[in-house]
Write a structure and sequence with these properties.
By secondary structure, this protein is of the alpha+beta class. The protein has a single domain (about 1-130), classed as Pnp Oxidase, Chain A, CATH 2.30.110. Helix content is about 15%, strand content about 35%. The chain has helices at about 40-50, 80-95, and strands at about 1-5, 10, 20, 25, 50-60, 65-75, 110-120, 125-130, 140. The strands form two sheets. Strands 3, 4, 5, 6, 7, 8 and 9 form a seven-stranded antiparallel β-sheet that branches. Strands 1-2 form a two-stranded antiparallel sheet. Strand 3 and strand 4 form a beta hairpin. It is elongated and about 90 Å long.
Length: about 160
């Protein structure tokens, strides 16, 4: 996930996230972090500038099978108890490590990312971009290699 502070200085960290409904969620978990909770750089950045980007990479040794999804959106700390419960349920379903962690209290804020733009790319399949309202933009085909320029016609020989 990429965040930026109010001055636009970027900060990128790996992220454990889950999709629930139309939102992505993450939690500041119980792994050792100093400082933790809302004092983390990513959390301070979100407080100053809610615009974030998340990239999920689908790596393959066969580079014709590479793919990724980039989500740009707005992040906010979840304050509603019901939404927090749903987010933690989704996170625990995806990450068994979270099932044994206590993620209650202010040291473990849950963050909602509301997607504004989703960009899907595959090395050998159609490229799909979604507008901020979720509607697909015009699909484009991602080239697998740079096209060669057309050859000029061969000169004609006199007869």
């Amino acid at each position: 996930m990429a965040t930026a502070d109010a001055a636009g200085h970027p900060h990128v960290v790996p992220l454990c996230f889950a999709l629930a409904g139309a939102h992505l969620y993450f939690v500041v978990d119980a792994k050792p972090k100093n400082p933790g909770g809302r004092a983390l750089k990513r959390m301070r950045n979100i407080a100053e500038n809610p615009h974030v980007a998340v990239v999920a990479d689908d790596y393959a040794e066969d580079w014709t099978a590479l793919a990724y999804c980039m989500v740009r959106g707005d992040a906010a700390i979840v304050t509603a108890a019901g939404e927090r419960r749903r987010a933690l349920t989704a996170l625990r379903a995806r990450y068994p490590q979270y099932r044994t962690m206590s993620l209650d209290g202010p040291a473990h804020p849950v963050v909602r990312i509301t997607p504004r733009h989703v960009h899907l790319w595959r090395a050998s399949a159609p490229l799909v971009t979604r507008r901020g309202d979720g509607a697909p933009a015009l699909p484009r085909v991602a080239p697998t290699r740079r096209p060669k320029p057309p050859r000029p016609p061969a000169p004609r020989r006199p007869r």
